[in-house]
Design a protein that fits this description.
Elements: H1 5-15, H2 19-29, H3 34-45, H4 47-82, H5 95-101, H6 123-134, H7 137-145, H8 150-184, H9 191-216, H10 231-256, H11 266-294, H12 324-328, H13 330-355, H14 362-387, H15 392-415
């Protein structure tokens, strides 16, 4: 493993002239990077089959992005952590949630598309970046709680840097193949509008990320205000990411799975509509969790099922105007997230019960059972996160669980979809 970032970059420059050298560097950075090399090799060997099966392959490529997002996300995180400060242990983390949980998102105080890709290398560059960070509100607040060292800053900087590099890797992994396939004429006419939507959402997601960070870099009016990103922008950023993921997953399932026959009866039609309702409620509950994270609302009432021995806490509607309580009062935000989650589990339980005697094909029935099991696990993780005062590993697992639950719901809705004859 490299002892410092400068060693890493000196090794990368001569080695990347060949695929073999690139693989060698990736394996030095972290073993899981070998997955990226395997993906690159796949792209270089499918050219001949694309000529005859271009449309089918581009569908598989769209599906592969769902898996690729997860793989690249893990890879970039681990590489960034392993090449970070000498005295800080590397942690393989789920970047989106952990960047927020570790309060790392405000460590990079500007946004430069290309220049950001090269982190500081020398001690002088690190010190210069640290001095810039010191001029912003978060450092002033953090230093009032505990003195921040340069090593501490390097850790949070690399967390945010890894998060940004992950986002750009996803964008490059989509845009470059899309342009190549378009030039070769391998994109079907029906798929072109979808690619335009995907590309637009990817760009919008990047914009939302910086728009969110920018809100945390501004001076707050009150002397006791804690520097943090806007919970509205955080929820928008998460919601946009979940929407993009859902579109990729749905498109991938359409191309990779063969529809199973469903009886054309009223019972199945009812389940089909209810499956979309379950998917929507899971999405809304996950977005409400972003408000919890943005306001640190998970720390206001750490008991369950009651909130400080009350079903309805006294400060539930203490903000004026009253509508602000829904989005800005930490008590109300936690209250809403709790009951949205409980409603989601109840709906999933009822849905599972309705499906017991329904004439569903094997894949759909498997999806129903997986949905119930994951809902119960996600509820357990949520309660554990609350009762243990939001430790980062448990909270990150809970946040990841919401994406897994949504994925299963999308899979189920896809299995129950009406297939044109």
């Amino acid at each position: 493993m490299f002892a410092s970032t400068s060693h890493l970059f000196r090794a990368v420059q001569p080695a990347t002239s060949s695929l073999h050298g690139f693989r060698h560097v990736c394996q030095l950075m972290c073993p899981s990077c070998h997955r990226v090399v395997q993906l690159a090799r796949t792209y270089t060997t499918v050219g001949h089959s694309l000529r005859n099966n271009g449309s089918k392959f581009t569908g598989r490529w769209s599906a592969g992005l769902v898996r690729g997002i997860q793989s690249v996300r893990h890879t970039v995180t681990q590489a960034a952590g392993n090449s970070a400060a000498e005295n800080i242990p590397a942690h393989a983390v789920i970047l989106g949630g952990v960047t927020r949980l570790t309060e790392s998102g405000l460590s990079m105080v500007d946004w430069r598309l290309l220049k950001d890709m090269k982190p500081p290398r020398t001690e002088a560059e690190w010190q210069e970046e640290f001095e810039r960070y010191k001029t912003f509100p978060e450092y002033k607040y953090q230093s009032g709680q505990k003195e921040m060292t340069l090593s501490d800053f390097k850790f949070i900087y690399y967390m945010e840097w890894g998060h940004r590099m992950w986002g750009r890797a996803v964008g490059i992994g989509f845009i470059l193949p899309a342009l190549y396939f378009l030039r070769k004429g391998w994109i079907s006419r029906a798929m072109k509008p979808r690619l335009a939507i995907y590309a637009s959402l990817l760009g919008f997601q990047g914009f939302l990320g910086w728009y969110m960070v920018k809100s945390g870099l501004e001076e707050k009016p009150g002397p006791n205000d804690i520097p943090r990103v806007s919970q509205y922008r955080l929820a928008s950023h998460l919601g946009s990411a979940f929407l993009l993921y859902t579109l990729f997953l749905w498109g991938g399932l359409t191309h990779l799975t063969k529809p199973q026959a469903l009886p054309n009866i009223k019972q199945v039609a009812k389940l089909r509509g209810l499956a979309h309702g379950v998917m929507t409620l899971i999405f809304v509950t996950a977005v409400s969790g972003a408000f919890v994270a943005g306001l640190d609302a998970g720390l206001v009432y750490n008991s369950w099922p009651k909130m400080a021995d009350k079903w309805v806490p006294d400060d539930l509607g203490s903000f004026d105007p009253k509508w602000k309580n829904i989005f800005e009062n930490p008590t109300t935000v936690q209250f809403n997230h709790r009951h949205l989650a409980e409603s989601t589990v109840a709906l999933i339980g009822g849905f599972w019960w309705m499906c017991r005697k329904a004439p569903l094909p094997p894949r759909a029935r498997l999806a129903v059972n997986c949905l119930l099991g994951m809902a119960l696990l996600q509820t357990t993780l949520g309660v554990t996160t609350l009762l243990t005062y939001v430790p980062v590993p448990v909270a990150a697992t809970h946040q990841s669980g919401s994406l897994v639950l949504l994925s299963i719901a999308v899979w189920l809705a896809h299995e129950l979809r009406r297939v044109p004859k």
